[in-house]
Write a structure and sequence with these properties.
Shape: globular
Bound molecules: pyridoxal-5'-phosphate
Number of helices: 14
Strand order of the largest sheet: 1-7-6-5-4-2-3
Radius of gyration: 24 Å
Helix content: 25-40%
Number of strands: 11
CATH topology of the largest domain: Aspartate Aminotransferase, domain 2
Length: 423
Amino acid sequence: MAPFDLAKCARPNILKLQPYRCARDDYKDDGTNVLLDANENAYGPGLALNPEGALQESTVTGSSTGSSKPEIDFLGLNRYPDPHQVELKKLFCQLRNTHTHTQKDLGPENLFVGVGSDEAIDALLRCFCVPGKDKILTCPPTYGMYGVSAQVNDIEIVKVPLDVDNGFQLQPEKINEALAADSSIKMAYICSPGNPTANLIKKSDIQKVLEHPTWNGVVVVDEAYIDFAPEGSSLAEWVTEWPNLVVMQTLSKAFGLAGIRLGVAFTSPPIATLLNSLKAPYNISSPTSAIATAALSPTNMTVMKKYREQIIVQRDRLVQELPKIPGVGRFLGGQEANFLLVEMLDKPASEGGKPSNKTALAAYEAMAEKRGVVVRFRGKELGCEGCLRITVGTEQEVTKFLQELRVVLDGILKGADIQSLRE
Ligand SMILES: Cc1ncc(COP(=O)(O)O)c(C=O)c1O
């Protein structure tokens, strides 16, 4: 077991933090009290509501649900939301207590819920890293927000690349060397499935980092795309076995709820306590909490699973069809997310084409500017020369994407200038 000592790893000011308390932490709101404790507006939300508590139709552009009972309690919006979200946390535990990686059970004390997993990424930095002094380790190519959040917090980044010649797997031995050499590295961020690499990281490689003999730090596994990977892939419940493991997830991807901003971090109770102490007390809005709770019900999970199936069918279709387009090269990384990383070449593969950023950038711009299809150019990322990252869309969107890419690449490989591709 790694020599993890939270008292020496977390920032001293955070360890000493007395979290904000509200009067309702002491006197639960059972619906019968007169609530004059939080400077809310007792008359109600400043919204034109009909007697059922729904927004009046005329006030919502494009809404056709004005008279139906809303899922969201509009009438209750004048009150602050629940700062603890225990019921929502219990639902996440039910979802992830699969007993695949441990027989132990997650409980609400293992959880932090935030405004997307982006809040968890930032909260962890503020919990463990002293600005201007401490560092984090990342494994490029990887998700850009680790770097942005680190920079905002004045935290340096030590980079140990994924093995670009070997399917973008982790290099645990190199990571462990870097961690042994620098005790100011407080966290290692590992993305699994990776973005932009779409591959799961081996559990045994993560375990090698967790078993580091001397490093006193935290391993953060970002599982934003985990529900596109095979069943049982999530390591969320494994946090019950490791005091220094954090697993982040989000409702933004497979659950299709990027608009509500709900992310979650599973971890040991002492780390969860610190994260919950440092967060803004009312970070999860009542509508977000209501929709997230609904999303985890069996009926709504059935819809999520149906859409996920459809995405996987379209992902398989892209895997079949893309290589048939002249100028498309190999898929890099894996196929365990809702996107694919694919090379654009300077010549058709049959003529010995090589990955080309020039082709990829021209295709990216022509697709977006004249063909109405926006993908992501990733050719500047480590080991991603010539790559576009394609999110899997609906059947019609994939059809359009394939058609337009064929036209655009044909033009580029024939040497047409980008202006003519835009016509
Ligand atoms: C790897 C990864 N982690 C986290 C996020 C952020 O998710 P959220 O919407 O929950 O903030 C993203 C979003 O693209 C992502 O790709």
